[in-house]
Design a protein that fits this description.
Largest sheet: 7 strands, parallel
Number of helices: 13
Number of strands: 13
Radius of gyration: 20 Å
Helix content: 40-55%
Strand content: 15-25%
Shape: globular
Bound molecules: nicotinamide-adenine-dinucleotide, sodium ion
Length: about 400
Amino acid sequence: MIIEPRMRGFICLTAHPDGCAQNVKNQIEYVKSKGTINGPKKVLVIGASTGFGLASRITAAYGSGAATIGVFFEKAPTAGKTASPGWYNSAAFEHEAHEAGLYAKSINGDAFSKEIKERTLATIKADLGQVDLVIYSLASPVRKHPDTEVLHRSTLKPIGGTYTNKTVDFHTGNVSEISIEPATDEDIANTVAVMGGEDWAMWIDALKAENLLAEGAKTVAYSYIGPSLTEAVYRKGTIGRAKDDLEATAFTIADKLKDINGKAYVSVNKALVTQASSAIPVIPLYISLLYKIMKEEGIHEGTIEQIQRLYAERLYTGSDVPVDEQGRIRIDDWEMREDVQAKVAKLWQEATTETLPAIGDLAGYRSDFLSLFGFEIDKVDYQKDANELVEIEGSV
Ligand code: NAD
Ligand code: NA
């Protein structure tokens, strides 16, 4: 069928299989163009179908020839109805990897559940024996706790007071003021339950208990800090509490991995357009200004550039992994450069509906957003009938 983008609020209801496949191919080509990384060989990626997790899977496979198992939660296609983009990305990745002679299997289901953990562990045991890298890249609005069965919902709220600032509706370009009421203690606890470190630790405990982590194995989860502009709603808000918890969990996991010489890290990544970040108020305006500056400076990166750099210049250099004073890997270094942030802060003051098209990269934001769903990708023929019913070859 002919597939077009269908928007509802901050989400796109359709995805294009050929566009998603082209995105994956482009990422593969990028990693290949950067040369071999003396990296991991057997990799588990939790949250492997989109964003930073997909880039992590592609970099492992095509940077260092790794066998990969990807866990994700995506919607399968039905006749006349497209799958979610992560489904098509994973179908394309599996297909490409198999053609290249790389082991790749995928597990589609709730990573927070005991059942999906068990299925993943059984697959590692049967096929790989052990893994030497575990990437934790989930972004989810909800988590059903596996022990209590309580359904926790994360929120994006400030803590301690109402937050008022500018935001943009990136579809219309309309800049307006938004006020967000402060979180309750329950909001904070729920957000930490969903996006904090507990589930990451549960995965590592389960893998370790079954001796599925190789000597010297690494595990990495992703975090964000960002500028003072967004602090109240991000790093000092509910999601920030969850990231504090995630970062603290890296230390407790690192302690548990000492006997196998394993390491646990949080990598602080750059702000990028993903399905997760486009739903956060204020962030799209920040990103559209940031993109403008970083592109002008020639230092703009997407998820694949970020993760290729993470593997090649942080995790697998052959020497110690460089970290900040709080033990975190920083690949948000170019975003956080003083000159970049000073320029963004200045533009922020000037941003209105009228000025934004010129001073911000709204077009870049929109096009990145559409490309998440496989639309507006070069080399894709959107007039051609697309097969929405693509299967994932290595589905377990
Ligand atoms: P994303 O939405 O692109 O990816 C989320 C992944 O999690 C997908 O593979 C999805 O299928 C999977 N997932 C969600 N719920 C699941 C569940 N219950 N079970 C199994 N899989 C599930 O998000 P992203 O932006 O790549 O975020 C990944 C991590 O990177 C998050 O921790 C996020 O906070 C962090 N991060 C994001 C940014 C940014 O600007 N986007 C910046 C820095 C750090
Ligand atoms: Na991800």
